[in-house]
Amino acid sequence: MARGERFGTFGWSESTDAFSFRTTVRRTATGIVIDGVKAPVSGAVFSDVFVVYARDAANDDVIAVLVERGDPGVEIVEMEPLGLRALGQGELRMTGVELAAERILVASDALSHAQVFLSSRRIAIPCFVLGRLEAFFEASARDLSSRMRYGLPASEMQAVQAALGRMWAQVETCRALVEQMLRRLGDRDERSAADRAWDPAVAATKYAVLEQARAFLYDAQNILGGRWYYTKWPFGRWMRDLMGMIPAAGTQAILEVDIGMLASSEVARRGRTRHRGQGDRP
Ligand SMILES: Cc1cc2nc3c(=O)[nH]c(=O)nc-3n(C[C@H](O)[C@H](O)[C@H](O)COP(=O)(O)OP(=O)(O)OC[C@H]3O[C@@H](n4cnc5c(N)ncnc54)[C@H](O)[C@@H]3O)c2cc1C
Question: What digits encode the pLDDT tens for the residues 184-207?
Answer without folding.
Answer: 998 888 878 888 888 889 999 999
